[in-house]
């Protein structure tokens, strides 16, 4: 009996509710006025319903208006005006009983918004739309609004044409209208997704951000240009703790993805000055500098009229994307460093860029079994080239020669010091083309050996035909030093070494690009003392040390050197 009484009471209350609320819900004039009032409060300007207003769903208590026009929108600045095919509003159930229709959710279908021209020329597609979304967060009187298939018309500067920026969906949920209340924002379009959950307090926004720009979406290039200008990737994603004000964007606990490579760390982008300034620390699994190298060379390459296209030191993307210069102060580390087919690592470096001057300081780079430090600079005062200085110790000389495709087989732990000026033109700017210049030193403090054809030829020339006859192909040395100077036409070498008690010195030249070799080597060996006078009775024999020297003339190529020996001489 009690259950029947409770059911009857509920049914009675429902009848009373419908008796009071339904007439208001079906009253088109009341619904139209409340509809326009809510949208006018949202936009801050005049709103008209040029189409019909109808009940969209009785089950959800929703109404739909067609051909909605926003004649002005001062509350949604920078929006000037807009329109929508339909706007569907879900009625707040409690407002029906209170006698004034209110709405808890709006769905705006196919809206078209025209934004004010950006005099500074900084409005940028999705970023401009995100800025508008933050305006909605700050000023919206609606707790839940969804824009389906919205289109924004954006223009940079006073004379540029408008461009069309379309999305699939933008959703904003703000259950509390308090100034620092939490909110959730999502934006979606083909190849692009953004999700944010946090709060806005005055001019500051903070919270959890997740963003994905897949494939060749232009936003991926824009974001990479702003946050990682050394990168070039077909896809980009990031997530982390965002803090965003009008002039500063920072991302803590960040996780970034560039295609198949990932990085974690912190980033901060300051746009208070022009150019903007990016600083932070990132740790990669694999740092690929191949795109940066190619882009820097392309930027310095002559274009139409023979003039350089782009400023030295500014990394340029594909032609379809215009990148703005960004000053850098970044610390990077990676388990692996990739440059074309070459891989090394781990690596730790610092990247700094100011007004076109780019410097990369490598604090640590493990390669060829050793470790290197280096500095790379691109200076506007020396356009079209980069300057490389560095020192590498305990390198595997054989692996180094193989990686550089040198026509020599050499073994032993080596130390390399270099200072090279490398052109960045479109043509190959590697040392073997004869276009780089500078100096280098190759040291073998613990000795090593020269193997193969070159080792056999050098051994035969130094010690006579016996080593050649026995087929010995290794020429060992106790210590060696090679100082080189790279010029436009070739490499000049100053050689010093020791081999089985002999001192070897010489000056050689390798002409580029055919690697023709010329020069001389001299050897000197100190012989056993030679008696000079008879010994006195009961005395020891006396004598002097003799030195045997020979001169070797080098010809042929680096791959097949020819050594001819002059007559050796003996001196006291």
Summarize the structure in words.
This protein is an alpha+beta fold and 572 residues long. The chain is 19% helix and 50% strand. The chain is built from 9 helices and 34 strands. The strands form 2 sheets. The chain has a 31-stranded mixed beta sheet that branches. The protein has a 3-stranded antiparallel beta sheet with strand order 23-26-27. Mean pLDDT is 75; it is low at 11-21, 303-323, 426-434 and 465-471.
Structural class: alpha+beta
Which residues sit in consecutive blocks of at least 5 with pLDDT less than 50? 11-21, 303-323, 426-434, 465-471
Mean of all residue-level pLDDT scores? 75
> Any idea what the radius of gyration is?
38 Å
Count every helix, treating DSSP H or I runs of 4 or more residues as helices: 9
What is the oligomer described by this structure?
single chain
| Backbone shape | rod-shaped
Strand content: over 45%
Largest sheet: 31 strands, mixed
Q: In total, how many beta strands?
A: 34
Helix content: 10-25%
Terminus-to-terminus distance: 134 Å
């Amino acid at each position: 009996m009690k259950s029947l009484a409770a059911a009857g009471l509920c049914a009675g209350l429902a009848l009373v509710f419908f008796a009071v609320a339904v007439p208001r819900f079906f009253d088109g004039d009341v619904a139209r006025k409340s509809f326009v009032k809510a949208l006018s409060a949202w936009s801050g300007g005049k709103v008209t319903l040029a189409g019909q207003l109808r009940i969209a769903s009785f089950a959800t208590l929703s109404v739909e208006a067609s051909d909605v026009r926003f004649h002005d929108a001062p509350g949604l600045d920078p929006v000037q005006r807009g329109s929508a095919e339909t706007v569907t509003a879900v009625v707040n159930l409690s407002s029906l009983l209170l006698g004034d229709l209110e709405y808890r959710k709006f769905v705006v279908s196919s809206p078209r918004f025209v934004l004010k021209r950006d005099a500074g020329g900084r409005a940028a597609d999705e970023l401009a739309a995100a800025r508008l979304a933050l305006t909605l967060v700050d000023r919206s009187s609606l707790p839940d609004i969804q824009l389906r298939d919205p289109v924004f018309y954006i223009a940079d500067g006073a004379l540029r044409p408008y461009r069309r920026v379309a999305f699939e969906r933008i959703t904003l949920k703000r259950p509390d209208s308090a100034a620092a209340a939490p909110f959730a924002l999502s934006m979606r379009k083909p190849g692009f997704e953004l999700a944010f959950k946090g709060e806005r307090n005055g001019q500051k926004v903070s919270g959890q951000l997740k963003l994905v720009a897949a494939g060749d979406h232009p936003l991926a290039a824009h974001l990479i240009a702003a946050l990682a200008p050394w990168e070039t990737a077909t896809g980009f994603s990031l997530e982390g703790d965002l803090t965003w004000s009008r002039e500063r964007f920072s991302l803590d606990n960040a996780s970034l993805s560039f295609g198949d490579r990932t990085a974690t760390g912190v980033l901060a982008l300051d746009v208070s000055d022009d150019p903007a300034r990016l600083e932070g620390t990132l740790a990669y699994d694999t740092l690929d500098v191949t795109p940066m190298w190619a882009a820097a060379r392309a930027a310095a390459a002559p274009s139409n009229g023979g003039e350089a296209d782009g400023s030295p030191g500014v990394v340029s993307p594909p032609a379809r994307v215009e990148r703005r210069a960004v000053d850098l102060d970044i610390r990077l580390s990676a388990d692996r460093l990739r440059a074309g087919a070459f891989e090394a690592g781990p690596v730790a470096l610092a990247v700094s860029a100011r007004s076109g001057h780019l410097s990369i300081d490598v604090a640590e780079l493990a390669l060829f079994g050793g470790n290197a430090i280096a500095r790379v600079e691109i200076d506007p005062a020396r356009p079209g080239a980069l300057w490389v200085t560095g020192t590498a110790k305990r390198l595997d000389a054989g692996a180094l020669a193989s990686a550089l495709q040198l026509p020599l087989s050499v073994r032993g732990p080596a130390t390399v010091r270099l200072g090279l000026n490398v052109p960045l033109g479109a043509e190959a700017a590697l040392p073997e083309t004869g276009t780089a210049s500078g100096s280098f030193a190759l040291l073998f403090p613990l000795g090593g050996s020269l193997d193969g054809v070159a080792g056999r030829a050098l051994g035969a020339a130094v010690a006579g035909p016996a080593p050649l006859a026995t087929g010995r192909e290794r020429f060992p040395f106790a210590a060696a030093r090679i100082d080189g100077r790279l010029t436009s036409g070739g490499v000049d070498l100053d050689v010093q070494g020791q081999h089985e008690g002999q001192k070897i010195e010489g000056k050689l030249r390798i002409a580029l690009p055919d690697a023709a070799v010329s020069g001389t080597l001299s050897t000197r060996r100190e012989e056993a003392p030679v008696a000079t006078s008879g010994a006195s009775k009961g005395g020891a024999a006396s004598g002097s040390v003799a030195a045997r020297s020979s001169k070797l003339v080098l010809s042929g190529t680096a791959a097949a050197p020819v050594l001819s020996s002059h007559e050796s001489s003996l001196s006291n």
